[in-house]
Specification:
The protein is built from seven helices and 13 strands. With 264 residues, the protein is α+β, with helices and mostly antiparallel strands. The protein folds into two domains: 57 residues, SH3 type barrels, CATH 2.30.30; 153 residues, Kinesin motor domain (Kinesin, 3-Layer(aba) Sandwich). The strands form five sheets. Strands 6-5-3-2-7 form a five-stranded antiparallel β-sheet, with no helix packed on it. A two-stranded antiparallel ribbon has the order 1-4. A hairpin with a 4-residue loop joins β5 and β6. It is globular.
């Protein structure tokens, strides 16, 4: 193994998770130290070996940073993915990025004006890679596949950590279907389906350290379409209820609502 001088790498950091660095001296396999320089000019001797750190991850060329599809990167690993998402979010305010057919979303914790009817119209009829990554592009792809392969069900899996925005993402997908596949009486299908959320949340949610209103169950939402691809109904089923965490409903006057976790 031989690593040349000026090679750009990522090294672990306790504060920033990953820090960018550059190798300042050629490295040969078996040497215990890798000579680096951080972006601020600070020199660093990075210990490597079987009992310490492995060789650091390589950085992507600057021309690839900010790509809207992670599979276009030369090196696809944790620091490369996190850096690309960070650049897209902080520099371009893009919360969506593709990774092949998967859509990666960053929760901005604020309302963005990218879900209006004009945006739905723009994505309707487009191929998934023709426009910037968006939840509407995923919904359009599912809708198009359903119309192309008659009577073949389509599924969109919305997954993420507590508080990541799964419920809101599902709502936007249903808004797209209600607009492109609904009529005036069906246009509020997502409101009708999500109106049942407060009832289920009162039974199956609990406060955690990361989310004040964390779902303790999954939701499987089914939207039914006619042969003309118009919405004719919707239903919701729950699964994987963590009964051990939902024992009783906390009294509104209970101090646990403010100072501690909810039902356990």
């Amino acid at each position: 193994m031989f690593v040349f001088q000026f090679t750009r790498v990522w090294i672990p950091d306790p504060d920033d998770v990953w820090r960018a660095a550059e190798i300042t001296k050629d490295y040969k396999e078996g040497e215990p130290v890798l000579h680096l320089q951080l972006e601020d000019g600070t020199p660093l001797e990075y210990q490597v070996g079987p009992k310490s750190n492995t060789l650091p991850f390589l950085r992507n060329p600057d021309i690839l940073v900010g790509e809207n599809d992670l599979t276009a990167l030369s090196y696809l690993h944790e620091p490369a993915v996190l850096h690309n998402l960070r650049v897209r979010f902080l520099e371009s305010n893009h919360i969506y990025t593709y990774c092949g057919i998967v859509l990666v979303a960053i929760n901005p914790y604020e309302q963005l004006q990218i879900y209006g009817e004009e945006v739905i119209t723009a994505y309707s009829g487009q191929n998934m890679g023709d426009m910037d990554p968006h939840i509407f592009a995923v919904a359009e792809e599912a809708y198009k596949q359903m119309a192309r392969y008659t009577c073949r069900n389509q599924s969109i899996i919305v997954s993420g950590e507590s508080g990541a925005g799964k419920t809101v993402s599902a709502k936007y997908a249903m808004r797209f279907f209600a607009t492109v596949g609904g009529s005036s009486r069906d246009a509020n299908v997502e409101e009708k389906v999500l109106a049942s959320n407060p009832i289920m949340e009162a039974i199956g949610n609990a406060k955690t350290t990361r989310n004040d209103n964390s779902s303790r169950f999954g939701k499987y939402i089914q939207i039914a379409f006619s042969r003309h691809y118009h919405i004719i109904g919707a239903s919701m089923r729950t699964y994987l209820l963590e009964k051990s965490r939902v024992v009783f409903q906390v009294s509104p006057a209970s101090p646990r609502l403010e100072n501690g976790p909810g039902p356990r």
